[in-house]
């Protein structure tokens, strides 16, 4: 049942974003969500779907190229297992490999970069993306989702990993539904079992 709920939620979030279901993480081998001749790229990483919705809105509104940042080995479906893995990556400075890189990154002048805040910082996978793509002389416009802790040290991380990019003020938005839902259900289950 949880997998069905997760799939239904992803379908809803995907529909809201205006993306086809083929681009949802159910099929992680698909990283490039669309390709066109735009000089603007929307690259995003989304675990729960919140950042994907924002990426879809930007993509539709600006008619951009859309690229999903996907790890070569998917993160666990379980929220707490993902948190544990992200903590390990952060503490050990692990940069997980990407499933795909952006083809012809040089042709883009503007890059909207979307990601959630994990452990008050940029996820290791997004750091991998930044480390493997030259964003020199490009305009970098971050859009950041978080669970109530704000943007963390993301500005310093972006400055360090994309030093030659012109960074614009980011969109920072709280999207904490997954954590709150998980904590509410877990608390309820603990109360029921007591």
How are the SSEs ordered, and which strands pair?
Elements: H1 2-17, E1 40-44, H2 50-62, E2 65-68, H3 79-91, E3 110-116, H4 124-132, E4 139-146, H5 154-161, E5 166-167, E6 171-174, H6 177-193
Parallel strand pairs: 1-2, 1-3, 3-4, 4-5, 4-6
Would you give an account of this structure?
This protein has six helices and six strands. Strands 1, 2, 3, 4, 5 and 6 form a six-stranded parallel β-sheet that branches. Helix 1 (2-17) packs parallel to helix 2. The chain has 194 residues and is of the alpha/beta class. 37% of the residues are buried. Strand 3, helix 4 and strand 4 form a beta-alpha-beta unit. The longest helix has 17 residues, at 177-193.
Brief synopsis:
With 194 residues, the protein is of the alpha/beta class. Helix content is 39%, strand content 15%.
| Annotation field: number of helices | 6
Structural class: alpha/beta
**SS elements, strand count:** 6
Biggest sheet details: 6 strands, parallel
| H and E string | HEHEHEHEHEEH
> How would you sum up the global shape?
globular
N→C terminal distance: 23 Å
Low confidence ranges: 1-9, 20-35
User: Helical content, roughly?
Assistant: 25-40%
Round the Cα radius of gyration to an integer and report it.
17 Å
Strand fraction: 15-25%
Mean pLDDT: 83
What features would you highlight for this structure?
194 residues; globular; disordered N terminus
């Amino acid at each position: 049942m949880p997998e069905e709920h997760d799939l239904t939620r992803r379908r809803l979030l995907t529909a809201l974003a205006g993306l086809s279901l083929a681009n949802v993480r159910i099929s992680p081998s698909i990283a490039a969500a669309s390709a066109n001749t735009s000089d603007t790229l929307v690259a995003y990483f989304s675990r729960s779907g919140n950042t994907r919705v924002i990426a879809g809105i930007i993509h539709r509104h600006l008619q951009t190229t859309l690229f999903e940042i996907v790890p070569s080995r998917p993160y666990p479906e379980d929220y707490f297992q993902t948190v544990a893995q992200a903590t390990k990556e952060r503490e050990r400075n692990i940069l997980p490999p990407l499933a795909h890189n952006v083809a012809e990154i040089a042709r883009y002048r503007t890059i909207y970069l979307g990601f959630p805040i994990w452990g008050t910082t940029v996820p290791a996978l997004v750091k991998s993306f930044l480390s493997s793509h030259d964003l020199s002389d490009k305009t970098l416009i971050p859009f950041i989702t978080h669970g109530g802790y704000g943007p963390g040290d993301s500005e310093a991380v972006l400055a360090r990993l994309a030093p030659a990019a012109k960074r614009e003020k980011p969109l920072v938005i709280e999207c904490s539904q997954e954590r709150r839902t998980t904590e509410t259900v877990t608390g309820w289950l603990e109360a029921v079992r007591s």
